[in-house]
Amino acid sequence: MKELTLIIVVAVLCLAIVLYRYHQKKNLRYHISSLQKAVDKIFSETKGAGLSQDNFMVGLIHYYDCSRKEAYYLLGYAQKHGIIKVDDGMISKA
């Protein structure tokens, strides 16, 4: 009986840690300061004035380790808050 209780306690602790990390990571992604750092890093790796939308999306996916759907959301979020500008598929810093 003690072994079963110990296993249940360990499983609940592991689940709590996983949920906490997920929640923490999700909330970190959508802060403006975090997104600004990501955009700065993506543009620092390029020498040109702008990036194609595909290259910018790949940079977001690698920086945040997220899906393409989340990267599209972050692209729109950055555009909405004036971090980037989008012109005919080319993205530049605002």
What do you see in this structure?
There is one protein chain. The chain is mainly alpha-helical and 94 residues long. The chain contains four helices and three strands. It has helices at 2-29, 32-44, 53-64, 68-80, and strands at 51-52, 84-87, 90-93. Strands 1-3-2 form a three-stranded antiparallel β-sheet. A hairpin with a 2-residue loop joins β2 and β3 (90-93). The termini are far apart. The model has no long low-confidence stretch (mean pLDDT 88).
Query: What's the total number of strands?
Result: 3
Strand order, main sheet: write it out: 1-3-2
Q: What coarse outline follows from CA principal-axis ratios? A: elongated
End-to-end distance = 62 Å
Tally of helical segments: 4
What amount of the residues lies in strands? 5-15%
Summary of the model, kept short:
By secondary structure, this protein is mostly helical. The protein has helices at 2-29, 32-44, 53-64, 68-80, and strands at residues 51-52, 84-87, 90-93.
Record the SSE blueprint.
Layout: H1 2-29, H2 32-44, E1 51-52, H3 53-64, H4 68-80, E2 84-87, E3 90-93
Antiparallel strand pairs: 1-3, 2-3
Please tag this protein with its features.
single chain; 94 residues; mainly alpha; three-stranded antiparallel sheet; 4 helices; 3 strands; elongated
